[in-house]
Amino acid sequence: MGKRKRSSRVQEIVEEEPPQKKDKSHLPPLERLSDEVYKKKGAWVNKQRVLVFCSRGLGAKERHFMNDLQNMLPHSKTEPKHDTKSDLKVINEVAEIRNCNKVIYFENRKHQDTFMWISDVTKGPSVKFHVVNIYTMGEMKLSGNSLKGSRPLLKFDTNFNKPHWAVIRELFVQIFGTPNQHPKSQPFFDHVITFTIIDGKIWFRNYQILEEDAELAEIGPRFVLNPIKIFDGSFKGISLWENPAYKTPSSMRSFTKMLSNDKFHTKDQQQRKRKARADMHPHKRRSEFVAIDHQQQQQ
What is the rounded (10 degree) CA torsion for 258, 259, 261, 265? Predict the structure, then answer.
């Protein structure tokens, strides 16, 4: 019998790959000064902040309307009422103190006229509007309901391609567009804000996007903006554009009052002429003569 050969065991040497180093760039350094502030590198890049506040004398309905806008903008901040006697340029300093680069300011005149300013505090421009036909969310009680803090889709009319409308459109995009990855926002879209130009005025509508059939249900609020002027600076500067069709509310009220006075005088004259014609009517004169004869017979 032959000798049995020994089985040679081959040892396989597996070369292990060196462990990959984890990315620790997002972590603070191991050694740093005690007064050094570490800046996190997050996904929130567009840090737009909007200051929303008003002047003294604003009505209750307008205040509720302003609160509706604040609830729509998770990147907004509030401020106490601004004194009407102070200059509007002070608003720029207030916005810088509050670390805001955009402003929505509501101004009240004569306790019945509401004006809205939107402005870019850093380098302008700013636009002044006359706000009309205000309907708050609590007043209408519509069926639409979006999640608070969700991001909106902005839809603009084709007329916004004109030069002065394009400036207003860019301000609306920066103010009403919720920044991506904002700490107080939700990472999805569930409502649409539309801006439509009709008769030289901007009509604002807010709709919810329904999940079942992708239809729209209005949420509110509703309002119409009549643009007055566009300035190159923030609450100051040269007037870049002025609405030629705009008429002040005071002039409109005086014109309406004049028409009502003319209508009253015209109606008074018509009543006098009608009475004069009735006095000269033959049947009335005959009845007067019959009444006089009857009185004489009784005497």
Answer: 140
Q: pLDDT tens, 129-187?
A: 999 999 999 998 898 999 999 999 999 999 999 999 999 999 999 999 999 888 898 88
> Does the pLDDT of residue 22 top 80, yes or no?
no
Instruction: Name the more confident of 227 and 35.
Output: 227
**Cα(90)–Cα(83) distance, integer angstroms:** 10
Domain 50-251 class in CATH: alpha beta
> Which of 35-43's residues contact partners 24+ apart within 8 Å by CB, and which partners?
42/181, 43/180, 43/181
Handedness of CA 278, 283, 284, 289 (dihedral sign): positive
Unique residue bearing structure tokens 């806008």: 69
**Distance between CA 265 and CA 253 in Å, rounded?**
18
32-to-26, 29, 35, 40 alpha-carbon distances in Å: 15, 6, 8, 15
**Cα–Cα distance between 2 and 5 in angstroms, integer?**
9
Query: What digits encode the pLDDT tens for the residues 83-103?
Result: 877 789 999 999 999 999 999
Going by C-alpha positions, the residue among 84, 118, 88 that lies closest to residue 101 is: 118
pTM: 0.73
Please, which residues have CB within 8 angstroms of residue 174's CB and are 6 or more apart in sequence? 48, 102, 120
User: For 119-162, where are the alpha helices, taking DSSP H only?
Assistant: 137-140
